[in-house]
Amino acid sequence: QLEESGGGLVQAGGSLRLSCAASGRFPNYAMGWFRQALGKERTFVAAISGGEGDVHDTRYRDPLKDRFTISRDNTKNTLYLQMNNLKPEDTAVYYCNAVDWSSIPTRPEKPRTFASWGQGTQVTVSS
To answer: Could you tell me which residues come within 8 angstroms of residue 59 by beta carbon, excluding any fewer than 6 positions away?
Structure first.
């Protein structure tokens, strides 16, 4: 089960930190963030590799890499997305999911996911 939170209304240039509380064997799974703007398909934002250690690999959709940072806290079964310098085009519902890490290179816009989608959290950036 996945529960996203932390969204809200923010002015352009502002920041938000999204959280995703997960149940189950969270440390074992690579996790990712996705977003869906109104009227558009859900697209990949960022992913972080799984494992018990503190060092994880990350992947980003290229245009977002300089502004977004994905992280995880396995002790809290929580995934995060720090978003800085937000732009109106970042407005979307943001979702988290367990990700098939091996699918990212071949499916960079839509990596394979494993879990049912949660409700997401709305991010609205005003100009």
So the answer is: 46, 47, 48, 104
